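Field log, afternoon session.

UNIT: design team B
ACTIVITY: writing a sequence onto a fixed backbone
BACKBONE:
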């Protein structure tokens, strides 16, 4: 049986635990104490504290006034470098769609078995909009963006829903990822990139999914053109 490299290398185990600290804080969406972070990692408080101090030294964590820790702004700078060309090309289109439709618009990308939000824009003047934070993730098999991504992969393992997405050129979902939220997504195939999707998420709409999809398709074409096809 092959050994787990995280258990045989102290260096990789430390790195893995440091990444887990960031994930625990991202999932919490609030500042946490050392004890809470240690509990989330399942390690002793002293181990958690050493990891926290290292991440703090690099600006990836910051200590707030009550002595708890939250994600640092340095992470935003690092995130901006992820698929920078795609983010830069997509941002104007996301902004236009979000403000026109009054819905949060975002690009989702494939990360192994998950669908991850790369960049998102909330509408400027909407009474109520949905936050779709970059880094949010869920299984590829759940929700419209995931199916829009899966429709670009080889068809051998397509589900009925993915086949329908490929046939009509868009996917829609209601309450699959988060209860009461609906989404419409279109494929965003890009040369040199893994399959992606361009999507909106909303609480309610008088517009039909097909109408939303047509607007998203136009935005997806503009993003592809900006990136050279």
């Amino acid at each position: 049986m092959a050994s787990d490299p995280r258990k045989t290398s102290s260096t990789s185990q430390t790195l893995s635990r440091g990444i887990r600290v960031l994930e625990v804080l991202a999932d919490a969406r609030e500042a946490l104490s050392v004890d809470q972070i240690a509990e989330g990692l399942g390690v002793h408080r002293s181990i958690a504290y050493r990891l926290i101090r290292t991440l703090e030294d690099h600006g990836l964590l910051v200590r707030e006034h009550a002595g708890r820790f939250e994600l640092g702004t340095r992470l935003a700078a690092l995130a901006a470098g992820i698929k920078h060309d795609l983010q830069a090309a997509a941002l104007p289109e996301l902004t236009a769609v979000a403000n026109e439709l009054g819905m949060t618009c975002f690009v989702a990308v494939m990360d192994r078995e998950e669908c991850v939000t790369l960049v998102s824009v909330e509408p400027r003047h909407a009474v109520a909009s949905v936050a779709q934070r970059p880094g949010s993730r869920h299984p590829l098999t759940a929700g419209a963006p995931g199916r829009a991504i899966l429709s670009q992969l080889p068809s051998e393992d397509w589900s009925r829903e993915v086949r329908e997405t490929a046939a009509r050129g868009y996917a829609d979902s209601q309450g699959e990822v988060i209860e009461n939220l609906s989404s419409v997504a279109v494929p965003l195939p890009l040369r040199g990139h893994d399959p992606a999707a361009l999507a909106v998420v909303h609480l309610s709409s008088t517009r039909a999914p097909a109408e939303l999809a047509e607007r998203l398709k136009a935005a997806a074409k503009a993003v592809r053109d900006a990136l050279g096809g």
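LOG NOTE: The first strand starts at residue 61 and ends at 63.
NEXT ACTIVITY: expression trials, pending approval
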